[in-house]
Amino acid sequence: MEHNKLLEMLKAAPGEYISGEEISRRLSISRTAVWKQINKLREEGYEFEAVSRKGYRLVGSPDKLEEAAIGAMLQTSGFARKLRLLDVTSSTQEAARLLAEEGAAEGTLVIAEEQTGGRGRQGRMWFSPPHKGVWMSLLLRPRRPLAFAPQLTLLTAVAVCRAIRKVSGADAGIKWPNDILIGGKKVCGILIESAGEDEMIKYCIAGIGIDVNLEPEDIPAELRSVATSLKIESGRHIDRAELIAAVMNELEQLYKLHEEEGFAPIRLLWEALSVTLGRRVTVWGGRGDISGVAKSLDESGALVLQDEHGSDVKIFSGDVQL
Ligand code: BTN
Fold first, then answer.
1. Which positions make up the DNA-binding region (predicted)?
2. What is the secondary structure of 45-71 as a DSSP string?
């Protein structure tokens, strides 16, 4: 509710009560209509105190993202310079894909306060409650072969991990290929979806989901042992606009670095932030389970495991169990 007159009236009188009668008179609406609007605003996350004979007072507003706040902290030339900020959508991946098909420019960013059908990797759902996370999809148009997509996945993980460390101070690391963990629990997931034509990328949608200000009780019970949030880990509220801008700043820098110098420098950065390398892992993938010690990334971005016979096995996709 962007230009709600009732909300504007209460905001203009901070800390004060305004009676239902006065609101109804000033807005020329019935007392029932006032009550209905208050309830609708409550559903959107506004909090009111209602006291009989005194009226209503605004005591809390939802933590809403604002385009200007994000823009003020951007240091990019193209990334996020075109922004779609949505209240609610099924999945920002879908919204970004539609924009891509309509010819939107590289760097267009779609952000939603809430997703009702958030998607994770391998057909899983992604829990995306309102106002507490960063749910966003960036449109990229790299003029490269389809084989570039896995590198883009790793590059995105490095960018997001660096931004999270910078903004929250938390000791975040990357689990291959692109989960961001803090203290062994997942705080962010990345989903790269690509459309190709003749072996070349037509566009990629880099979907990033970060659990920012979720409280322990906001996390579904079945995920509590494996998922966390930046607020839980850092003990403080994190400014989502600052985090979004930091991710975009890092991402554009690394994207340009890749254009100029290829994957080698990105690989070094990824390895430095990795929590996978050096550990015995099991990978659940297309070829069944493979166990071994994670040794390195190869030049294409595949994970190199040393199996129990001492041979190197390259893993191109799958889920890693640490
Ligand atoms: C994963 O770890 O499984 C990937 C999760 C990706 C979630 C993000 S949230 C923004 C974008 N929209 C979606 O529907 N998914 C991605």
1. 20-39
2. T-EEEEETTTEEEEEE------HHHHH
Residues 264-273 have pLDDT tens digits of 999 999 999 9
Q: Say if residue 121 carries a ligand binding annotation.
A: yes
Q: Which of 227, 41, 63 is nearest to 134 (CA)?
A: 63
Report the predicted TM-score, pTM, of the whole model to 2 decimal places: 0.90
Map out the domains of the chain with their CATH numbers: 5-60 (1.10.10.10), 67-273 (3.30.930.10), 280-321 (2.30.30.100)
Q: Which atom of ligand 1 is nearest to the CA of 136?
A: 10
| Residue 194 contacts residue 140 (beta carbons within 8 Å) | no
Task: Record the tokens describing residue 208, joined without a space.
Answer: 């990033």
For residue 117, which atom of ligand 1 is closest to its CA? Answer: 14
Torsion of CA 226, 227, 228, 230, to 10 degrees: 130
Q: Which residue minimizes the CA distance to atom 3 of ligand 1? A: 120
> What ipTM was assigned to the predicted interfaces of this complex?
0.99
Closest protein CA for atom 9 of ligand 1: 209
Confirm whether residue 278 is marked as ligand binding.
no
